[in-house]
Design a protein that fits this description.
Length: 233
């Protein structure tokens, strides 16, 4: 069949629905990131067209259906490398809208001591003794703010994460994650790059982190956070 090249906007919306499994991310930039990842991975045009036309929210069904159209595209969609790229997009999608994309690109990055791109900083910012269980969300707040803030593009986003700390810690604490994962978050390593999910200790923790309900919870925490206004002169 003749394949009409799909637009990045249509592809982004379809992949956004697929990656968030219909949870409805409130972050439009997540779609653009997903579309870019799929194209960079070498996804065939007929595979991209199928994803847009199918417009589904079930990754397994998409892979199965795609197999009939493009085996290479189905293999790519199911691949771990593309999944990790999508995870990184999902993490970015949970970032608050500090400013519009245009202003972001024109503002020079702060000269903060952040890790070099591609090399996450796994050194804990806080002590979280492994032999002591995490017993309340309060024990996670500082660590989660530290970890999420390391992805912030500007000071405004850092303030949003600080404001969202309590919401994030309650969400993470009640999600059913392992103690090992909770210790990781309590330590608050300022990763700064990559996706958080790749550092979680087991498949169950990763499945929880990637679940639509949890992903939407992260987005809601950052969207509804109200940074404390600076006191006037």
């Amino acid at each position: 069949m003749s394949t009409v090249k799909v637009t990045d906007m249509a592809l982004g919306e379809a992949l956004n629905k697929l990656a968030f499994q219909g949870a409805g991310s409130t972050r439009k930039d997540g779609g653009a990131c997903l579309a870019s990842s799929a194209r960079k991975a070498g996804m065939p045009e007929e595979a991209l067209a199928y994803i847009v036309k199918a417009d589904g929210d079930d990754m397994g069904a998409a892979v199965d259906g795609l197999n009939k159209v493009s085996e290479g595209g189905a293999a790519l969609l199911a691949s771990r490398s593309l999944r990790e790229d999508f995870d990184a997009c999902i993490d970015k999608a949970a970032l608050p809208n500090g400013s519009s994309p245009k202003t972001q690109s024109s503002v020079p990055p702060k000269a903060a001591a952040k890790p070099v791109a591609g090399k996450p900083n796994l050194k804990p910012a806080y002590q979280a003794p492994a032999d002591q269980p995490v017993n309340s969300p309060i024990e996670l707040t500082e660590g989660l703010v530290s970890m999420f803030s390391s992805y912030a593009r500007d000071e405004g986003q850092e303030k949003t994460y600080a404001a969202a700390g309590q919401c994030l810690s309650t969400l993470v604490y009640n999600a059913g994650l392992s103690q090992e994962a909770l210790h990781f978050f309590a330590g608050g390593a300022p990763l700064g790059t990559g996706s958080i999910v790749e550092h979680l200790p087991n498949d169950k923790d990763k499945a929880i982190w990637q679940s639509p309900r949890f992903t939407q919870g992260l987005v809601d925490c950052t969207t509804n956070a109200t940074p404390t206004p600076m006191p006037g002169p």
